[in-house]
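[Protein data]
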Amino acid sequence: MRRPAFVAGVAVLAAAWATAASGHGMTAHMAAHMAAVAVAAPLMALGLAGTRADPASRWPLVVAPLPMSLLELLVVWGWHWPAARAFAAGGAIGLVLEQTMFLAAGLLLWSACLETRAAGIVALLLTTMHMTLLGTLITLAPRTLFGTAGFTGFGVTLSPVADQQLGGVIMLLVGAGSYLFGGLALLFRLLRSDRPEGARQWS
């Protein structure tokens, strides 16, 4: 186990869940969501890679990149359906269920992509595309989609629309950026592994 990566992922996840529980509107929700799936999940997957706890190693026929990319698409878009978002924001049960599903979907996807690099590149780039699309829709929506009251914190007050727009920008920058970077990193490693043995210079 790459313990530092796993511990860092757990720390990020704890901060994300604390943020989600703060109730500071769409901005806090999206920051928590992106921290869980795009930062904590890849760190935890990297820490578990190759161990008995690695889901991709244990269930390779199920935890494969493209199916897990589809699973994350369904989880992410499903929980951003206005009724589902209201359920998550309305009580502890909904919030816990939402955040648990976000983490599980992210962890399974990243684990699958680290295990199968070629297909993982495609899966991460597809995830980048749907994250970008959802983030754009949230950012450009002319009215509030989720009935939030806005954001107040850190000396800043945002209207409901501005709060939603900032949440969409966070998804665009952190979410889409993380998956794009992950796909490019896997591509770089795949290209290096295809080089002749004598030409490799592993650090």
Summary: DSSP finds eight helices and two strands in the chain. The longest strand covers residues 151-153.
